[in-house]
Specification:
Largest sheet: 10 strands, mixed
Distance between the termini: 27 Å
Number of domains: 2
Helix content: 55-70%
Oligomer: single chain
Strand content: 15-25%
Number of strands: 12
Shape: elongated
Order of helices and strands: HHEEHEEHEHEHEEEHEEHHEHHHHH
Radius of gyration: 32 Å
Number of helices: 14
Structural class: alpha+beta
Length: 412
């Protein structure tokens, strides 16, 4: 019998026991759907978190020491380490203000528009970034996060471009609104602002002029980040005359690539664990297939005898029953793949609408979450389905092929 005849006979036999076939297929559907949904959702979480780090995150290096970095230190690093494409200091500040009898704590980050564009972590929904003149003069301008709009102005959708926000005794003009949720979820006493470095240095930071909390560098394309990290640490130790045995205590240089690799390793491990757990349902489904096929063999002993009497060989009987098992699994795999996609999208929509991943965003902003589907996942699902059909259908098929034709014909 050729493959077409085997498939036709298999489908005919399965149709004769629709109820039993549907229940057996259901076990495979649940297993495949669980595997597809879990792997896709975890892959989606990984992509969401990595995209939130910014396009250049893999090239970004954070640099700090136990004492404030000076502007001269940062300039020397840029000259001594050839792998650095761009380096700039950042400054943190803090202030408080009162709004409607509420005291609001305000965290301020001092940086440049160029740095914001390089990191890609701040996504503006309204307004603009600082211009060169505002940065050079230390103008009192600020970018407020969307959650801060709700905190300060009591309305998350308020039109705030050009309005003033007060920090301490000074007022700052809002030039942009960033898509981030600090102060927006159950917190009306805290908010973040982003300002030019010179603006923060004038009254919002405890550090002296020309000093920074840390520096952020971007290594050149194609340069090994870990090598650059080692070079930066060595150059900084040399310029600040730090003894070799105290370098690790005094200087810290951290690459975002290390964080990205760690995140990928964690999600991969989690994906394997959840896939293994979901695979248990596939094992149960496979056992269900074996049970069904053994029952089919018992019910069709006389049919097997007739086929053997008409010239069917043992391998023909094996192929026939094996094809039935594979047909069940492939059908379950197709339905399970579709169901897994639908379930993954449903969970993704619920998670996005409820904001459950918001706290995992790199900037605390809103997160649009989508499952990560790939051809490999589909191929894996189909491959697993066929493998289960062969694995759990082989024994019943061989048992049917080894039956004595004479005894089969006598069977009532």
């Amino acid at each position: 019998m050729n493959v077409r005849d085997l498939l036709r006979e298999a489908l005919r036999a399965l149709e004769a026991n629709r109820g039993r076939t549907l229940l057996t297929v259901l076990g495979i559907v649940i297993g495949i759907a669980a595997v597809i949904a879990m792997t896709s959702l975890i892959g989606g979480v990984q992509q969401t978190l990595l995209s939130g780090l910014g396009l250049n995150a893999a090239r970004m290096v954070q640099i700090g020491t136990s004492s404030p970095l000076r502007e001269t230190d940062i300039e020397k690093l840029g000259k001594l380490v050839g792998s650095i494409e761009f380096i700039e200091g950042t400054l943190s500040g803090f202030g408080e203000t009162n709004v409607d009898d509420r005291q609001i704590s305000i965290s301020v980050t001092g940086t440049s528009a160029h740095m914001l564009e390089m990191t890609g972590q701040v996504k503006l929904t309204e307004g603009r970034l600082f211009n060169a003149q505002e940065e050079a003069s230390g103008a009192r301008v600020a970018i407020i996060e969307r959650g801060g709009v709700k905190t300060y102005f009591s309305k998350p959708d308020a039109d705030v471009i050009g309005k003033q926000v007060k920090v301490g005794n000074e007022s700052y003009t809002i030039v942009g609104v960033a898509d981030a949720a600090s102060g927006g979820v159950g917190n009306d006493s805290y908010m973040n602002l982003i300002m030019p470095v010179k603006t923060v240095a004038r009254g919002l930071s405890w550090l002296p002029q020309g000093s920074f909390d840390q520096a952020i560098a971007f290594v050149r394309e194609g340069v090994d980040v870990e090598t650059a990290v080692s070079d930066i640490k060595g150059a900084l130790a040399k310029t600040q005359r730090v003894p070799e045995d105290e370098i690790d205590d005094y200087i810290w240089v951290y690459s975002m690539k290390a964080q990205i690799d760690s995140l990928k390793s964690f999600t991969m491990a989690f994906q394997l664990i959840t896939g293994a757990v979901a695979g248990i349902s596939l094992l149960v489904g496979g056992i269900g297939i074996m049970n069904m096929m053994l029952t089919n063999v018992t019910e069709r002993i006389r049919e097997i005898g007739v086929r053997r009497a008409l010239g069917a060989r043992g391998r023909d009987i094996t192929r026939q029953f094996l094809m039935e098992s594979i047909a069940i699994c492939v059908l379950g795999g197709i339905i399970g793949t579709v169901m897994g996609y639908l379930v993954a999208w449903g969970i993704a929509i619920v998670v996005t609408n409820m904001g459950l991943l918001q706290s995992l965003s790199a900037n605390g902003g809103s997160v649009t979450f989508a499952p990560a589907f790939s051809f490999v996942t589909v191929a894996l699902a189909v491959g697993i389905s066929v493998a289960i059909g062969v694995l759990f259908g082989f024994y019943p098929a061989r048992r049917a092929a080894r039956l004595d034709p004479v005894e089969c014909l006598r069977y009532q």
